[in-house]
Amino acid sequence: MREERHGSDPAEILLVEDNPGDVRLTQEAFEEGKIRNELHVVKDGVAALDFLHQRGEYADAPRPDIVLLDLNLPRKNGDEVLAAIRDDDDLHSLPVVVLTSSDAQEDVVRSYELQVNAYLTKPVDPAAFIETVQSFQEFWLSVVRFPPDDDAEG
Questions:
Q1: What is the model's pLDDT at position 152?
Q2: Entry pTM
Q3: What residue stretches are annotated with the Response regulatory domain (predicted)?
């Protein structure tokens, strides 16, 4: 087991997903994975921004190491959430990976225009879905290096 996350701290992951089945599959994939993590789940874009800004019921929420963001969300869609993150001085460097059922080229292009770090399309097959999430986990949480939390100065 390879763990290179801030010493022994688990990776903090924010999953923004309104589909209960996809939440369950994602949780299962992370539980089966090799990297310690804390998976936090919110069901819409407004709650995602409240979590990231530690507002309301999320006042004690940790700052995630990475955000997994669905595009098709109630109240505030994924594009709006991504734009808000990139426009915020405290959040703009936070890694965001879109994980969505949309494989529409215009969604891919728009996400990259909004500076998403990666775009993943959810497979329909549950086993393939879990494999996709585990591939994400292996790459983003063990290979990629993140800036320190206090990188706002530099």
A1: 44
A2: 0.87
A3: 12-137
